[in-house]
């Protein structure tokens, strides 16, 4: 009996629980195949490369088991992972009861998936250590994601080395031009002027502080808790001839005591803070900014209709185990409420949701163009993780499941200097010239 024939009863039960959802083929290691539920011969295929693909799911049913099978390479696609991921919402609410779990176990045993015991967990899965959102554990979580390899990130992000949403004037322009525009947009929203003290919390590889010092003459400090990021950021600062104006530190924002700064930005960092820590986060920022100073917070937000549907803060997800350990997404309103409870005044907000979808698609294309080199640098597991996560994230932004916002806050007690007309905050349509 072929693997497909053996697995057919289990797949049929899935089709009963989620009618019409499985518009994919399933191809097994022996070459046998189950057609899609709608019989489409051109439907994309999920490929099970060995019985161990089922072993992961049998030992850990649910998203974690599937994630482990994907990361280890035991599960693959026929080349178009996006077509398969577009079906992800069709299986939401699918629940395996005791009868289904028993059927899964019997099928796995008949297919030889239980021989040899529990399969090894992929090396790239995050191992928790310490109290949630403590300094020690946050450093571990950040290192897991960002200390992959500067060269790997260079392949994915391109020359801009900016790992956050770009700002496109047109969908056809390059991500590097759009990233340059985003950096300028942040500087203009903060009204940066010559010799102001500017702090970038979570500075990454230094792109924003370099731009702010070069184009606006500020004296900038960038902080990151990634040693690898800091090393390259310092080299880029020296290469730009800005060592007298830009300092890169390895430090957590909670460890900073050298305020006040005139302006502060946090771009793509607050997702790591944790919902329960948001008030303390904004209070820490407020303590670092002079009265009348400005703070720009740029980060991903959940969107209300999808809050209950997707467990963004759950420990039992692909994202939490392999991409952003301990990351938590908040509603925009939750973040703004936390900021205002900490004493900040909300002055401006802009949604960049469509821009992030475009950004991610550019990164996916970069990874595809350099896949062999990416595998050589960071390993096949990391390449598979980033391919899946960035493709899925692009689809989520496009579908309005998550958004991203730039919110400007003012620190009470002084004149903030913001213009009456909002368009005064925006950069020109074309990228700034140097």
UniProtKB/TrEMBL annotation:
<keyword id="KW-0949">S-adenosyl-L-methionine</keyword>
<dbReference type="GO" id="GO:0032259">
    <property type="term" value="P:methylation"/>
</dbReference>
<dbReference type="InterPro" id="IPR029063">
    <property type="entry name" value="SAM-dependent_MTases_sf"/>
</dbReference>
<dbReference type="InterPro" id="IPR050723">
    <property type="entry name" value="CFA/CMAS"/>
</dbReference>
<keyword id="KW-0808">Transferase</keyword>
<dbReference type="Pfam" id="PF02353">
    <property type="entry name" value="CMAS"/>
</dbReference>
<dbReference type="GO" id="GO:0008168">
    <property type="term" value="F:methyltransferase activity"/>
</dbReference>
<keyword id="KW-0489">Methyltransferase</keyword>
<dbReference type="InterPro" id="IPR020803">
    <property type="entry name" value="MeTfrase_dom"/>
</dbReference>
<dbReference type="GO" id="GO:0008610">
    <property type="term" value="P:lipid biosynthetic process"/>
</dbReference>
<protein>
    <submittedName>
        <fullName>Fatty acid methyltransferase</fullName>
        <ecNumber>2.1.1.-</ecNumber>
    </submittedName>
</protein>
<feature type="domain" description="Polyketide synthase-like methyltransferase">
    <location>
        <begin position="152"/>
        <end position="396"/>
    </location>
</feature>
<comment type="similarity">
    <text>Belongs to the CFA/CMAS family.</text>
</comment>
<keyword id="KW-0443">Lipid metabolism</keyword>
<dbReference type="InterPro" id="IPR003333">
    <property type="entry name" value="CMAS"/>
</dbReference>
